[in-house]
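Protocol step 4 of 5: obtain the predicted structure for the target chain.
Materials: sequence only (see below). No template structures provided, no constraints applied. The aim of this step is simply to have a reference model before the mutagenesis design in step 5. Sequence pasted as it appears in the construct record:
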Amino acid sequence: MSFIIFDTEYTSWRGCQEHGWRGKQKREIVQISAVRVSNDLRVLDTFNVLCKPQLNPVLSDYFTNLTGITNSQIQRKGISFQKAYKKFIKFVGKSHCLSHGYGGKWDDKCDGAIINENLILYKMPMDSNIKYHNIAAWLIPEYKKIKMKEHPKNSGRIAKYLNMDNKIKNMGINEHNALYDSYSILMGIRYFRKDLYSLLRKMS
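Step 4 output (structure tokens):
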């Protein structure tokens, strides 16, 4: 058995979190990253694509400062969301997909909801066969078992809070890069691997 850990980055502007992406500002996906993980938590494969936003094609300085992704990179390496989604679906296959939404329930789609939002935005058919789950619903009880005073609210902070972030930084990527955040989630699962059976059972 293998499963997918994934994360997305999407267009953003200063203040958009507070006002909810008003007017012409939309949450267009700019990056989809994922790791395929075995049931003994080895990385079997990775997925990382950049997407060219179509409604707001120029990335804001705020977004670039946050993620490190530049307009130049998007122009050189970016593909359409339509093509990226097809590649992602192929990578996922029939595996369960885990992303992170602090405070949510296990069945929350989290970043899967952002993907679905983009399917609607670009008038693409929905794929209801993908099994999205919220790994935060499994991690939070684990944090409480070790009496963590403060929990990482963002996926990219998990590795840092557990003192495991150097293993990711050596890859040359930083927090708020979707690939970094995917590996950060994996570090959290590895940290609490003694309870891995309970996680695998939830996906069986």
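Step 4 remarks: Residues 75 and 155 are 27 Å apart (CA to CA). The longest helix spans residues 178-191.
Proceed to step 5.
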